[in-house]
Design brief:
Largest sheet: 7 strands, mixed
Structural class: alpha+beta
Distance between the termini: 51 Å
Number of domains: 1
Bound molecules: protoporphyrin IX containing FE
CATH architecture: Orthogonal Bundle
Shape: globular
CATH superfamily: Cytochrome P450
Strand content: 5-15%
CATH topology: Cytochrome p450
Radius of gyration: 22 Å
Number of helices: 17
CATH class: Mainly Alpha
Helix content: 40-55%
């Protein structure tokens, strides 16, 4: 570790030099970052990656300052956001006026009341997918965990966003296209200084995926404008709100918000649930409690929104899953002006890496941080911990809009699956995370689907 003398500091900042970071970084960048955060005990540290020298911010106090206290100075610019903008446009996942206007338009759509109003439809949509799983179970054919979770979540999210304004075939084109876009962007996320005039691996697949998404979404927007419905889906609400501008800009803004929310809602939920199966496989005692709760509350199904409040252990499992595998594993900010964090002068233009994956693994704030233990989230067990020691949904004014939707949708999905099936992991671990836009396992996880009545043994 060296001391950075070049930066104009109030106190000197530790810098991890490139030759020490790169080998680990190339092999497993997600865990390399977490390890560095752990080595410095949450202190602010600078990474020296050639021309790119971001700060790694892991201490909850500093995360809070960047995301909340000084949020106007630390914005979604540069690294990560710039490549993503080619997919998301100027939207709710941006900054400034477009973000403000999108947040105002979208926030009322994801309240507890709104989610309650669509929960029946969500439960029905999810339940409808279970026959497909039954077919796999009948044939003894394994499923790909990521694809299966994405398929089920996609149906649910498409229902929330587009209602009945999109055909099933078009809705199903979105998930693989978005998955490809989010996966093929890795090179640009890791090499943000690479100019767009230079073609890099993944570019072609990325642009093709964006075109597929546009080919699906623009016609649906035009149709929603021409035939306004009851407004209970997000596209109708957005068309109503942005109804004045029927020229290109209005459609573009609606497209950018829809694509951003679609991505934020579907990729994150699906990848989170993908990580569940290896954890249940490795922790039969957790699996047994989860099965017992779902058997008791949901029985043979179908799952209903009224079950969600009773699925308390299921919620704890999801909370712990989001601690170890926060789908938004990294979301950087760029300093717009000179600032100061942890006594270190931060120059305008500096990149600040915020990683819940790293903070959630700090021994200083978590007992046995690498262990999967849902009991940490038992309501009666909750120790007093810093609010930003756990922030899978971000914080400050950009805090996730979909947290409530997630805690309704994910228990419905687990209730639907586990009231009828058990998923047995076929693929040998370990499962290392890939550094895509959302945290996904590097290799495919294959699952055997077993009907509940056919399961023998103590954990049913
Ligand atoms: C496991 C599920 C989810 C996780 C882990 C997650 C995580 C996050 C995180 C970390 C942020 C903050 C990004 C930043 O500060 O730059 C965020 C923002 C956002 N999320 Fe989620 N999210 C999830 C599900 C959802 C769902 C279901 C929706 C559907 C509405 C959604 C919509 C959004 C939106 C619109 C934002 C941007 C908010 C803003 O900037 O004003 N998310 N999410």
């Amino acid at each position: 570790m060296s001391i950075d003398a070049s930066a104009q500091t109030l106190r000197r900042v530790k810098t991890i030099p490139v030759h020490r970071v790169l080998p680990d970084f190339a092999r497993d960048p997600v865990n390399a970052l977490a390890d560095i955060g752990g080595q410095v005990g949450g202190e602010l540290v600078r990474l020296s990656l050639g021309p790119f020298r971001p700060y790694l911010v892991t201490h909850p106090e500093h995360v809070q300052q960047v995301l909340k206290g000084d949020w106007t100075n630390y914005q979604r610019e540069g690294m990560f956001w710039r490549p993503l903008r080619r997919l998301l446009g100027a939207s709710i996942l941006g900054e400034g006026r477009p973000w403000e206007s999108s947040r105002k338009a979208l926030q009322p759509l994801f309240t507890t009341r709104y989610v309650a109003s669509i929960a029946d439809r969500l439960a029905e949509t999810i339940t409808a997918r279970m026959d497909e799983l039954d077919e796999y179970a009948g044939k003894g054919q394994p499923v790909n965990a990521a694809e299966e979770m994405a398929g089920i979540v996609n149906d649910a999210v498409v229902k929330v966003l587009f209602g009945d304004k999109i055909s099933r075939a078009d809705g199903e084109r979105l998930a693989p296209a978005y998955h490809t876009a989010a996966g093929s962007i890795t090179f640009r996320l890791l090499m943000p200084f690479m100019p767009y005039s230079v073609r890099v691996p993944g570019d072609r697949a990325f642009m093709k995926a964006v075109k597929t998404i546009d080919d699906v979404v623009f016609p649906v927007i035009r149709k929603a404008r021409a035939e306004p419905g009851d407004g209970s889906d997000v596209i109708s609400a957005l068309c109503g709100l942005r109804g004045d501008d029927t020229e290109g800009a209005g459609d573009r803004q609606i497209r950018d918000d829809l694509v951003s929310v679609y991505g934020a809602a579907s990729e994150s939920t699906a990848t989170t649930l993908t990580w569940l199966w290896p954890q249940l496989d490795a922790h039969p005692e957790v699996a047994a409690r989860l099965y017992e709760e779902i058997d008791r509350v949901v029985g043979p199904g179908p799952v209903k929104p009224g079950h969600v409040a009773e699925l308390r252990y299921t919620r704890m499992v999801l909370q712990e899953l989001l601690r170890l595998y926060p789908a938004g594993w990294i979301f950087p900010r760029m300093a717009m002006r000179d600032g100061e964090v942890d006594g270190v002068r931060i120059k305008a233009g500096s990149q600040m890496l915020i990683s819940p994956y790293a903070t959630h693994r700090l021994e200083r704030f978590w007992d046995r941080p690498l262990e999967f233990d849902p009991e940490r989230f038992a309501p009666e067990e909750q120790p007093r911990r810093h609010k930003y020691a756990y922030f899978p949904f971000g914080g400050g004014p950009h805090q996730c809009l979909g947290q409530h939707l997630f805690y309704v949708e994910a228990p419905l999905l687990l209730g639907a699956i586990l009231s009828r099936f058990r998923m047995r992991v076929r693929t040998e671990g370990p499962f290392i995370p890939a550094p895509a836009a959302s945290l996904r396992p590097r290799k495919d996880i294959e699952l055997d689907v077993v009907r509940v009545g056919h399961v023998t043994g103590g954990t049913r």
